[in-house]
Amino acid sequence: MDLIEGICYLNPVYPELLADHPTMRGVWCKCASLIKNGAMMAPLLVDDRPLREAICHQTVESLLHKTTGRSFKDFPWFAPKISESGILAKYPSMHCPTLYLHYNMQVLRLLRCRGVEDWTWTKIHPLHFQNVNGETLLRLWEWLDEVVETNLNTGKVEDPENEILSEDIWGDPNTFFSRFRHYWVAENGQTVSHTRPVWHQGKVLHEPIP
Question: Degrees (nearest 5) of the Cα angle 146, 176, 157?
């Protein structure tokens, strides 16, 4: 299964996150073009946190309609939306990067719970999201690696929720990272690079795909 991930901010604080900005049009037009090949949309992470510095308020439907001319139901979603406010209700101390990490954890659990073993995950994000994405994948790998090590050392699964993740990541980290791809969209709405994450000296780098 090929998963495609876009972005959605209901209370954007940066212009490029607005529905009528070229960056967001570029992100969602790329998503729309990729699902034509039979891919499915990853659960939409909706940043619905109320923010004082928000430029405006927009809805999921208005975002998708302005960027692609489609509605939410027109996209093939793998699972329902995931709300950042919902995550914060369970884990109040989380900050933005940790929220995104938790979202990735939830999607991995959904894949295993539904018996999907052969999957890839393509993220279409603004160009300046590169550092956040690299750090998130690094922390995701470190967390999963710790889960496996703990289970092996104790001979049992400490957290039943994590049992479904372990066999996905056994071995070299690049085996895990090989499932991911990124398309990076510039402020003019153009896709400027296509990369894959690679593990190098304790960091996750974005390697261009020819």
Answer: 35
